[in-house]
Amino acid sequence: MLHFNSKPLDTGHNSNLLLGFQPSLVFTFSGSDRFRSTTSTTAAGDLYDGDPVGDHARRGQAAASVARRVSEVEIDADRWRMPKLSKNDLDAEVIRLTDLLMQSEKKILEFGKENAQLREQIAQLKMLQELLRESLLGAENKIEDLRGGVVQERQAVAEWEARCSRLQNEAAEREVLLQEILTSTSWRISAPIRIVGRQFPKLARASQKILRSQRAGEPTVRRGSQLETDARDEALVSLDNPRSLAVARTESSSVNSLASNVVSPVCGKLESVDHFSLLQSNGGKRLFLAAADVPPMFDHQSGASRLYMMMRILFEGGWRLSFASEATRGDFEVLAGSTVNRERYESRLREIGVQNIAYGREEINAYLESEGSGIRWVLLSSPNVAYSLIPRIRIHAPWASIIYNMVDFNYLRMRHQAYFNSDGTIRSSALQMREIEIANARTSDLILAISEDNRQALLELDPSLVVKVVPNIFDVPADSDPELASRQNLFFVGGFAHDSNTDAVQWFVEQIWPLICRQRPNLKLIIAGSATPEGVLNLARPGVEVLGAIDDLTPFFRRARVFVAPLRIDVGATGEVGQSMAQGLPVVGTKIAAEGMNAVNGKDLLVADEPAAFAAAVIRLLDDDTLWLQLRANSKELIRQTQSVEAARIKLGSILNG
């Protein structure tokens, strides 16, 4: 901004107006201190000192200086002068600046909201921090409590271990003492007396009474007396115990001589225990008790199917049957899936002559107390059931012979699984299971193994055991048209309660199935089985169908082209492989899957252990109709001879009748 000031100066001289003029020039540029100039003549005396010539010159210089300064100021003013804008340009500039202002205000609002949100989040984080601090404090307190509990548990475990050690030492001492008794001469000499006493308890009591009366000078029992009649009746009733007859025949020489001396004075006509075998036709008095964890779910488990088939054979042989379930009725209903399914399994048991079904410990105890004296045979399936019931049966059914039905040799299966998975926990469980199974075997009269391999393994642990082999039992359908042209799928079935089946199907789908699909992209794999875990359900994909539990597998066996059994964990004898062979569906399996079947590779089934070899065997059966028909015929004949109902009937008859 440029200001010019001029005002008259009162000097008292009018002759020269210039002498009375005092110019004042002030340059001010607002907003900047870059340039500031002030030029003024403050008094006339400063320009006029009485010398006209000098004064004129000085005035000229001053005027020139002022002009020069004015020029410089104009140049600087041009530098700072705003350009001239039109009205439209000014309006546009105003609009632009207004938009910028509005955007700035909008951003300020957004920043304010974000700031508020951040403040809220900070507050929440502070609350969470307090909660975490409190939780941490509580966790620390719980940890302290748990540490105290762990110390107590360790002390309790140490006490139990010490107690177990003492009990083991006592058991070892008793075992030594028992072996000394069993191997003593007196025990062997008294064997005939014990046999007769078990068979004819009333007769034994009568003999004791005779001996006591003779020692006391009392008269002997006369022929035809009530005592003689009771002894004879007891002898006849006891004859329906096949196991007792078998034991008697094994020691016939000593028993016969004793019978002639002890039995003849009372009964007269009874000369030999072998003579009693002719009187086993009295089947109405033979009571057979079967027991398992639950009633046999024959359509879901191969072991349950085997038990059901044995009970059916016993019913056809004239035995009266009862069944004991360790699980309660409610627990079994949950396992079966519904009340309808529970009643269906119960109905199938009644169809094969089961008169009583006892559920749970209380009902079983009540049944044993009521009917125990009439039970002649007891078949106990599964290790835990046998371990629980054997003592009660010995108390309430002293005349019964106990059969321990192993189904699987669980110790072998668990040991193989522990080795396969390198799992020390499973190995420890396997050792515990071995003790249970050996204890069951030693306290039973007879053990039924599912395969010769299992029998030999059990005898290696205790050669004194009596072990017979009763394999899986299947109905073998009559030969019919295989309808080979309509068969195209692969089929797998197995109870997934066993880890071996879960491992098998996962290994097949992940390692073998892709190799097969490269050559047969349109092929389908069908997986069925009870208790299907999530890991198996997740195997479903294009070409792989997971069905779960199926009540009737017959249609699947008839439509499938190949049954696959890729088992890698030892299970003894696989019921699913036998079932497939009985249905005439050729099998491709591993060596473990073929164990216990007495099957020949290339004749009865195809065996392969490596993924590539397994896939090649499957492709071979898909392509070779002649081989497929040969395996079908041979495998059905193998099952018919070794694992059919007819073969099992002969086997069980020879076991139960000595």
Question: Any key phrases for this structure?
Answer:
658 residues, alpha/beta, Rossmann fold, 4 domains, seven-stranded parallel sheet, 59% helix, elongated, disordered N terminus
Structure description:
With 658 residues, the chain is an alpha/beta fold. It folds into 4 domains: 2-80, no CATH class; 187-279, no CATH class; 283-469, 3-Layer(aba) Sandwich (Rossmann fold), CATH 3.40.50.2000; 484-642, Glycogen Phosphorylase B (Rossmann fold). It is 59% helix and 12% strand. Helix 6 (201-216) packs antiparallel against helix 7 (226-238) and helix 16 (410-421) runs antiparallel to helix 17 (424-442). The longest helix is centred in the first third of the chain and has 96 residues, at 87-182. The radius of gyration is 53 Å and the shape is elongated. The model is unreliable at 1-48 and 215-284 (pLDDT under 50).
Describe what is shown at a glance:
By secondary structure, this protein is α/β, with parallel strands linked by helices. It contains 26 helices and 16 strands.
